[in-house]
Amino acid sequence: MGKRLFFGAWLMFFSAGTFAQDFEEIYSSFRQHTEEEYSNFRHQCNEEHAEFMENAWRKFNDFPPKTPPIKDKPIPPMPYEEGEGGIKNKELPYVDIVPIAPPTPQPKPIEPIKEQPQPVEERFAFRFYGTEGQVRLNDDMRFSLNGTNESHVADAWRRLSGERRLDNVIRDCLELRIRHGLCDWAYLQMLQELGTQFCGANTNEATLLTAYLYCQSGYKMRIGRGKSGRLYLMVASRHCIYGIPYFQIAGEDYYPLGYNEDGLYICEASFPKEQPLSLWIAQENRLAERLSDARTLKSKRYPQVKATIQGNRNLIDFYNSYPTSQVGENFMTRWAMYANTPLAQGVKESLYPTLRSAIQGKSQHESANMLLNFVQTAFVYEYDDKVWGGDRALFAEESLYYPYCDCEDRSILFSRLIRDLLGLKVVLVYYPGHLATAVNFTEHITGDYILLNGQRFTVCDPTYIGAPVGATMPDMDNSGAKIILLE
After folding, report:
1. Who is most buried in 13, 56, 143, 207, counting CB within 10 A?
2. Are 404 and 385 in contact (CB under 8 A)?
3. b/e per residue, 419-449, with b = 16+ CB within 10 A?
4. What's the N-to-C CA distance of the chain in angstroms?
């Protein structure tokens, strides 16, 4: 708004004739002026940030890692016995609905970062999760820290931000984020790899370069210093993260990466328009493909429902780095974060054609029964404690890759198949110690169901082995059931 008023006032000085004659010149000057404003504003923000860094940092003590609040004893899978009284048509109660806040737009720089002329287009190649990236970094941009006190860090920040010397690097990083569809967590991992491979592993220079690129990309971060003199990048998150020590600064949680000390001295300086990262994965992270061994999966009841698939090991490795988290204050939202993550295109191309062929021409009821039996019988059930040493949810992609999965993993996978192949709405149904699903069929289906805003969701339990659509596993207490909404 201020720039529009400025432009309008500027034009007041010219007569109509002059306006017509010199408009291009006027507009060109105005555009140059506003671009300089953008550049000067960002330069001023970085200078002020460096000045804050020169002040004494404050000592903070860390909080121990948060642990998931749900510690229910898992309910084992159960075989379905034919003739148990048949499928009933019963409305089931529930005590709560868990809504999910939609993903927010990814952070962006405080102002557009203009392409800078560069005499030599020298590029630095690096790799993250088997995927090559190239940015316009050269040896002239290397820097060394003589120490990590306040003035050392401030001087290094000024050097990184001075003369717009890394603007093209930031543009290249953001372009890689777009090209590969990187979520915030993947983008952070990419910047860490860039910093490490350019500056050296476990160096303060790598941490500071990563912090600078992350900050200039629009993300909220702080820098901490341990008693050892090591610097730590601390990231703010929209979502509560489990299993990582954290610090509270101005009422907000920050998670230090690679932290292994007892407390930190932290610079509390903020940066304009900074935004915390999100752990939503709204689209496929398009990493270079490294195929896993082929795996054949087949339904016992419907042998035509089978597929031989190969996953992307690079994507599996990325998922291994993904932290357990939740949206807001409700731990059950974490299952929605896994269930709403799309399958990779390569897996869809190997899995979906055969499944579509098997259900072609079938009713929604028949198709859902076939897909349900596929998830019930093509996978081996095993407890997380035995496989992983503790609770761990799997993305649908991981359930197709790893040899074992449990009730939550099967429900996440089944919900993905139903939404992708049948286009139907699905919710997760949480019982203490168990997770199932319910599907909103548009055909009349007989079976146990939940009524949500006048819409009927029929129970489908991927862990009730051999059970058809509409069957609830015995001893499930719906008086304590909670419904988790999915996209």
Report:
1. 207
2. no
3. bbbbebbbbbbbbeebbbbbbbbeeebebbb
4. 37
Q: Report the pLDDT averaged over residues 401-410.
A: 96
CA 89 – CA 446 distance, rounded (Å):
5
Distance (Å) of CA 272 to CA 67, 133, 249, 284, 316: 32, 28, 16, 30, 35
Count of beta carbons in the 10 Å neighbourhood of residue 146: 9
Question: What is residue 450's three-state secondary structure?
Answer: strand
Three-class SS state of 390: coil
* DSSP assignment of 178-233: HHTT--HHHHHHHHHHHHHHHH-TT-HHHHHHHHHHHHHTTB-EEEEE-TTS-EEE
Q: What is the pTM of this model?
A: 0.90
Q: What pLDDT was estimated at residue 229?
A: 95
- Which DSSP letter does residue 445 get? -
Residue of 306, 433, 324 whose CA lies nearest to 379: 306
The answer on pLDDT for 207 being more than 50 is yes
For 36-48, the pLDDT digits (tens) are: 555 678 889 999 9
- What's the CA gap between 466 and 364, in Å, rounded? 18
Note the pLDDT tens digit of each residue in 308-354. Answer: 999 999 999 999 999 999 988 888 899 999 999 999 999 999 999 99
Please give the structure tokens belonging to residue 300.
Answer: 């016992």
CA distance 437 to 308: 25
Rounded distance between C-alpha atoms, residue 64 and residue 69, angstroms: 14
Pairing of β 58-60 and β 124-128: unpaired
Residue 4 CA to residue 15 CA, distance in Å, equals 19
- Report the number of secondary-structure helices (H) and strands (E) in the chain: 13, 22
